[in-house]
Every structure is written in structure tokens, then in C-alpha cells.
Specification:
Blueprint: E1 2-4, H1 15-22, H2 38-45, E2 48-50, E3 53-55, H3 60-77, E4 80-83, E5 87-92, E6 94-101, E7 111-112, E8 118-119, H4 121-133, E9 140-146, E10 150-157, H5 160-168, H6 181-192, E11 199-206, H7 217-226, E12 230-236, H8 249-259, E13 263-266, H9 269-282, E14 287-292, E15 295-297, H10 300-337
Parallel strand pairs: 6-9, 6-11, 11-12, 12-13
Antiparallel strand pairs: 1-4, 2-3, 4-15, 5-14, 7-8, 9-10
Length: 345
């Protein structure tokens, strides 16, 4: 479809005619000779006498060329564009951040894998996470691991293949043996600062209590709530453990309740898989469909036509003068070389 970016510029089209009608012609005094046959000269030249001045006329073809050049100039300024059919593109409308505990207690072998073999907690978590991530097409996903300190394993990305591969490479203790759950939430909040999507969600998984955070989980949760971030918490492992391995379910419940998320308990792999299935249903895939109509600028078309027309008009205007000039010079040369009549040779 052909359209104009600045159609209001077409109002300039009658501007030359308005100037011609409203502005008086330029008068330049020149010496003249009074002759009795002035009316005959005016009739022969086509000039229009106006008072003591004569307004020179303009040929029809030259007037037509000037009008056409002006129209092409205004058309180029109006910026014609060809708009293509709309293209539809889906873009993620949710940023999903996974917080995974890699403290030493995640090496406890009290879970089973899909085949029924006994495995450590982290191995079971990685298997369930891989299945969960395979269904998150359309979301931007990031991963933060935490132990003695939180670290960004995967920044927000729509490349779920890369995310799943890096999740499988997680190892117990790679972030330290302790648990800094509150600091992990704080790092997640920092990652969300550059997010522009409307939905922001954290899913935090831990099997211990916060033992070394500089920011208490409850305070970090309040900051997340103020920034419209929802946090779901998952408690895994033995709830009867004591010491540093004790599972602080109360803190996890408070974090989820403060941010409007849910608290889930998973004592084995089946319960953990069920938790992620429930989260998959709660945090449904959100996608914004963006319609884009490509535009191709065509202002060069009237500009090219204007250039060609003006060059052609100038060339055709010179032709009569070029034709007359050789004839004039030829006559003069013949007169110079011809012998004078009546003179002896």
C-alpha cells in the first residue's frame, strides 16, 4: 500500500500560484528608446506592458516544466512509502528466574530418579528442572545458584537449550557449602531491574535454612513485593533435620506469602515433579504478539524524476541556441573571406 509519511506537506502545492498572484513582479530599470511602433513590438514579443514596465512572458512548455518540478519536489518532501503486509512476531512477556540451592546438604542421597535408583537431591532436581524448562517455550529464563554466595549461572535468555545444558552442569558445593537464601533473592531482584516484561517470577528451591545472608529473606521478600516480583518457594529434603541442615519452612512460607507466591513441599522426586507441574499451570506461558509493517521509503523516485526532468529541460533549452550559433559564425566567416564587391582583386 502506498502512503505518505507527511501528507500535510501537500498543502504547499498551490504556494507558487499564491506567490504569483499576491507578490508584484520584480521591476528592474533599464534604458529604453521611445518608438512610435511600441504596440507592434509588444504584440510581436508577447510581453505584457504594465505601467512604465514590461513583464516578460514565459513559454507554455517552460511553465509546465516548472509546475511539474515543483510538484515533484513537494512529493519528495511528503516522503512516499510503500507499506508491506503486517508481520506478526511473538516475544516473551514473562521473565522467570530459578534460584537453586547448591549447598552441601544437596548431596544427601534420599531421592530417586525416574528409573527408581537412589540419587542425591541435586540430581533429582536437575531431572525435574530439565522437564520443567522444556515446557517454558516463550519465556525468558534465568538461573541463580547459591551457597556461600549467590551467582548468576544463566542470565535471562530465551535460549532454553542453553539454559537446560548449563543446569545439567550444576554441581553440589560449586557455590560453597552454606545457604544464603536472602542474598540469592537480592541478586534476583538486581537481575530484574533491567527487565521490561510485565510478569516477573522467581522459583526458589532450597533444602536448608538461611545461615549466612547479609539480607534476611523476609526483608528481601518485601523489596521483591515492592518491585512486583512474585516468589514461589519449594522446600525439599527432610523437615525433621536439625542444625544447619534444618529446613526453615516458616521462612519459606513467609517469603512466598509476602510476594503473593505459593509455598510447596517436596519430600521425594514425585512430589517435586508434581510441584513443578503445578507451577507450570500457575505460571502459564505469556507471549506478546507484536505486529510490524515494514516500510520502504520511495522519496528517491520523485527526486530522480525531478533530476531527469530538469536536466532534459535544460538540454532542450540549449539546443536552439547551439543550432543558431554555428550558423551565425559560419556567415561571419564567409563574409570575412569573401571579396568586396566592386573592389579590384
Amino acid at each position: 500500500m502506498l502512503t505518505l509519511a507527511y501528507p500535510w506537506l501537500l498543502l504547499l502545492l498551490p504556494l507558487p500560484w499564491i506567490v504569483h498572484r499576491m507578490v508584484p513582479p520584480h521591476i528592474e530599470p533599464r534604458p529604453a528608446v521611445r518608438v512610435p511602433f511600441f504596440s507592434a513590438l509588444v504584440a510581436l514579443t508577447g510581453a505584457t506592458p504594465r505601467g512604465e514596465a514590461v513583464v516578460a512572458g514565459r513559454s507554455v512548455w517552460r511553465t509546465a516544466v516548472l509546475i511539474l518540478c515543483w510538484c515533484l519536489s513537494v512529493a519528495a518532501l511528503a516522503r512516499p512509502q510503500w507499506i508491506e503486509p503486517p508481520l506478526h512476531r511473538d516475544r516473551p512477556a514473562r521473565d522467570l528466574l530459578l534460584l537453586v540451592d547448591l549447598s552441601g546438604s544437596m548431596a544427601t542421597r534420599d531421592f530417586t530418579d525416574a528409573s527408581g535408583a537412589t540419587v542425591d537431591r541435586l540430581t533429582a532436581v536437575k531431572q525435574v528442572l530439565d522437564d520443567f524448562l522444556s515446557r517454558r517455550d516463550g519465556d525468558q529464563v534465568g538461573v541463580v545458584v547459591f551457597g556461600n554466595a549467590p551467582f548468576t549461572l544463566v542470565p535471562f535468555t530465551a535460549d532454553l537449550g542453553l539454559c537446560r545444558r548449563l543446569v545439567q552442569e550444576m554441581q553440589v558445593g560449586m557455590a560453597g557449602p552454606r545457604t544464603v537464601f536472602g542474598d540469592a533473592i537480592g541478586l534476583g531482584i538486581t537481575l530484574f531491574e533491567h527487565s521490561t516484561v510485565p510478569a516477573k517470577t522467581m522459583i526458589a528451591l532450597t533444602d536448608g535454612n538461611d545461615t549466612a545472608s547479609r539480607v534476611p529473606p523476609a526483608e528481601a521478600a518485601r523489596v521483591a513485593r515492592d518491585k512486583a516480583i512474585t516468589i514461589h518457594t519449594i522446600a525439599i529434603g527432610d523437615p525433621t533435620a536439625v542444625g544447619e541442615d534444618a529446613l526453615d519452612e516458616k521462612a519459606l512460607q513467609d517469603v512466598a506469602g509476602t510476594t503473593g507466591g505459593g509455598f510447596f513441599r517436596a519430600l521425594d522426586r514425585n512430589q517435586l515433579a508434581d510441584v513443578y507441574r503445578r507451577l507450570d499451570a500457575i505460571e502459564t506461558r505469556k507471549v506478546d504478539t507484536v505486529s510490524v509493517r515494514p516500510k520502504t521509503d520511495l522519496f528517491w523516485v520523485p527526486l530522480a524524476a525531478l533530476t531527469i526532468l530538469s536536466m532534459a529541460a535544460e538540454a532542450f533549452g540549449l539546443l536552439p541556441r547551439l543550432r543558431r550559433r554555428p550558423a551565425f559564425e559560419g556567415v561571419g566567416a564567409a563574409d570575412r573571406h569573401a571579396p568586396a564587391r566592386g573592389m579590384p582583386r
